[in-house]
Write a structure and sequence with these properties.
Layout lengths: L7 H15 L7 H38 L3 H9 L7 H32 L14 E4 L2 E4 L4 E7 L2 E6 L5 H10 L6 E3 L4 E4 L5 H38 L5 H34 L2
Antiparallel strand pairs: 1-2, 3-4, 4-6, 5-6
Protein name: Ribosome-recycling factor, chloroplastic
GO molecular function, one term: ribosomal large subunit binding
Function: Responsible for the release of ribosomes from messenger RNA at the termination of chloroplastic protein biosynthesis.
Length: about 280
């Protein structure tokens, strides 16, 4: 029969067996020695069983710990989970930012329109004086806030101040403006004759309109840029994912395109007014 190598359990058992019998007291009485031997064998059997079970338990514990994750490892993995915003939260953030964007873009359109109206055409229009400021009692104020402005016909404007003592400062403000108009003050009202534009002057004003339109477009782009930064901030705060930001940016570009077209439309209308004789 081939000899089998000792297992860890067998080695431990043999070592324990040697220690037990080494501890047995020497007896001269054969009967007493037999009784002691029997008693120690019973103890030995119990110890062997416990030792073997202990070895198997240690082997099993080592196998479990090498393959199974500990509670600490599980908690560590779970704490690394990132939660992005829900659809409802994304829509709420989008709604707030888009509301701000549209409000600012609408104000930009109003500003562009006001600038266009201030550009003189061949036909009299009270809005031509919208950008004229008057030094009234030491403070700059708009002309339309201290006087009534009307267009009695296609070639003249009528300025009637609420305070007649302000007529001289109003006259001075009109002369200092870039409108190229000469006021006629009769002590009651100020009349302005609107001369017909030359072909060369119309082309110059068309360039002014184009410049004003471009300034409006730059303002629209800046508003879009601010909104993109707001989305990117939410992404850094882990409230939006990269895909969310891409989708929202795409929708924002559509809104931007709408307002860009509005500026182009009113620019064409103004240029048409300037070039028509």
């Amino acid at each position: 029969m081939a000899l089998q190598p000792f297992s860890p359990a067998t080695t431990a058992t043999r070592s324990l067996h040697s220690r037990i019998f080494a501890s047995l007291p020497l007896r001269t009485d054969p009967y007493q020695r037999r009784e002691n031997h029997t008693r120690h064998l019973c103890v030995h059997a119990k110890v062997l069983s416990s030792t073997a079970n202990c070895v198997r338990l240690q082997e099993g514990t080592g196998a479990f710990s090498s393959r199974s994750p500990t509670a600490k490892q599980i908690v560590k993995k779970r704490t690394g989970v990132i939660r992005f915003a829900t659809i409802e939260e994304i829509e709420a953030e989008k709604s707030l930012i888009e509301k701000d964007v549209k409000g600012r873009m609408e104000k930009t359109i109003e500003t562009v329109l006001g600038n266009f109206n201030a550009v003189r055409t061949g036909r009299a229009n009270p809005s031509m004086l919208d950008r004229v400021e008057v030094e009234y009692y030491g403070s700059p104020v708009s002309l339309k806030s201290i006087a009534q402005i009307s267009a009695p016909d296609a070639s003249s404007l009528l300025v009637q101040p609420y305070d007649k003592s302000s007529m001289k400062v109003i006259e001075k403000a009109i002369v200092s403006s870039d409108l190229g108009l000469t006021p006629n003050n009769d002590g009651e009202v100020i009349r302005l004759s609107i001369p017909q534009l030359t072909s060369e002057r119309r082309k110059e004003l068309s360039k002014v309109v184009a410049k004003l339109a471009e300034e409006g477009k730059v303002a629209i782009r800046n508003i879009r840029r601010d909104a993109i930064k707001a989305y990117e901030k939410l992404e850094k705060e882990k409230k939006l994912s990269e895909d969310n930001v891409k989708d929202l940016s795409s929708d924002l570009q559509k809104v931007t395109d709408v307002y860009m077209k509005k500026i182009e439309t009113i620019q064409k209308q103004k240029e048409k007014e300037l070039l028509s004789v």
